[in-house]
Amino acid sequence: MPLPLGFTGAWLDRADQLRTNAEAFAIAATDPRARCLVLDGIDFVPSEGGGLLWEPLDPADDRALMLLGIDDDGIPHFVREAPAGVRIDARSRTVMRLLPLLSGEDAALYGGARSLVDWHARHRFCAVCGSSTDLFRGGWGRRCGSCNAEHFPRVDPVVIMLAECDGRVLVGRQGGFPPGFFSALAGFVEPGESLEEAVARELFEEAGIRVSDVSYVASQPWPFPSSLMIGCRAVAKDPLLTLDTTEIEAAMWVDKAEVRAALAGDMGAPFMAPPPLAIARYLLEDWVGR
């Protein structure tokens, strides 16, 4: 069976009732049991046991609080906005080497916190009038003090898909990938198109193949910086490839035996498979399992 999807299964109740009630939020922020996630910019700081590091709320820290949720004991958990002036590279994946230290549930919680802190760092000013904005709704929104416009965190929908033809699936690689690494093809959903249309367009643009029978498999939040990966399958009408080399360096059709070898890490496999946290690996596991 496919592995559990990375960055899913966070263990906190998001507690919308506290986000929307300013008085209740203020009470939660003064709860002596409250905990705050320790970050270095937007990267997590490992605890001695290798998990997330939580500290009591520091009353001397005047950075705004964002509510991540409450646990089963009703203890509120927060994260603070990044210090002003700190440069944040939301697409940096240096934290990937530390992620294996986290449980799946902690990785999910960290992924949400990372995306939220990054969003606030990039939306300190109103997109309508340019004035400065302030946090509201428990940290899950910003409001402009001049024009009263409200802004909320957004995610970018991305389709990621396996095209199948004659018992094989298509994998590809970009120039920046490690040597031998191949993955499922992916692309952002554009305004005015459905997921099915996005899958068909991206596969044609990047690989030159026409597909039909697009079906949904699973989704995954991906906090680099804040995407929702929407995993799909599709059936290619013809295996002939015409690559857009500005997007794809190489691509190939692989059968189930070759995919199994890659997933097992065999030295003789024709490609290196995506890591366990990635939905691309889930799609390959799912396809092999079928």
UniProtKB/TrEMBL annotation:
One of its GO terms (molecular function) is NADH pyrophosphatase activity. One of its GO terms (cellular component) is cytosol. Coiled coil: none annotated. It comes from the Bacteria. Its cofactor is Zn(2+); Mg(2+). CDD domains: NUDIX_NADH_pyrophosphatase_Nudt13. SUPFAM superfamilies: Nudix. It catalyses: a 5'-end NAD(+)-phospho-ribonucleoside in mRNA + H2O = a 5'-end phospho-adenosine-phospho-ribonucleoside in mRNA + beta-nicotinamide D-ribonucleotide + 2 H(+). Residues 153-285 form the Nudix hydrolase domain. Belongs to the Nudix hydrolase family. NudC subfamily. This is NAD(+) diphosphatase. It comes from Sphingopyxis fribergensis.
